[in-house]
Structures
1.
Amino acid sequence: HVTKATDKTVELRALMSAANSSDLWELRCQVRERLIDFIRINYPGGLPKVRMEVDGGAPVAVAVQE
């Protein structure tokens, strides 16, 4: 389900179950990683890109729109 959408983000919710909490944690991680891989492969411009720049020794996160 799409639980939230803005002009720059989409939040998805996936419901799943497993036999125990350890298996559920592994399942959640696998589902999240495979969803991201699917988007990365099929919609290469669909994920944000963040770059780090060091200016005077302090790291600064910079979001880059391409």
Note: The radius of gyration is 16 Å.
2.
Amino acid sequence: VREVMFPGHEHEMTNLYHMDGTDVVCTHYCASGNQPRMVASGLTQTDEGPALDFKFDSVSNFIEGQDHYMGGLRVTFINDNVIHQDWTSFDENGNEAHSVTFVLKRKG
């Protein structure tokens, strides 16, 4: 599955979700130029609905001392028309740097 974030904007980014054997993988093609890879740790039930938690696996094109990277993602399936994405970025030392939530709603 290909997802485009902020299409047409300066900070447009792409996420690719795919299977790697039995693992569900997300590769985030970041506007900063790095490409973190996260692997789903399984489906869990939350108060909001079922959720997939993606954990950091590796990152390519990371520049030490300059970059942050996305290292965590939770995708929560609220209902048939709404999902929440909770993204977490980390600094070069692996410390949590920033979190952001996106609410995605089906059009039409």
Note: The mean pLDDT is 94.
3.
Amino acid sequence: MAQASPATRELKCLVLPMSGRALIVPNVAVAEIVTQQDVTQQSNAPDWLLGTGTWRGLEIPLIAFDRLCGERDAAPERTGRFVVMYGLEGEGAPPFYGVRIDALPRTETVDPQKLRPAEGSPHDSPLVAARASVGDRECLVPAFGRLGHELTRHIGRRA
């Protein structure tokens, strides 16, 4: 069997700055980065569900992932910069959702030498698949399936 070349083991990612540890996601999971000023609050929603916003004519849920997984003590501002993520087909979640970020994301090309499991115990939240070290920074890897389930539980499928 042929061995994979170094280029095929590289993965283009975005590091999403948040309160506490950043989130790292593959570029292909991101649809767009937007600034959202008009956020419609949802009644009886958990504090991590900031509301909904309109993106390309679709109503999408806007979330604070760092609040959802326990990395942020207080809910962030409802408006601001969001990374629009593709939802998971077949999970029942919305086809798109926005994740609130604190600053512009940076691109990162990761490979097995650059991306390593973080030392210490796993993250307490089931919404975090792993803690990873990227260079000298610790990042969280989201559990996309569980996140989709959580979104479905609170808002259902939209768009």
Note: The domain at 12-155 is CATH 2.40.50.180 (OB fold (Dihydrolipoamide Acetyltransferase, E2P)).
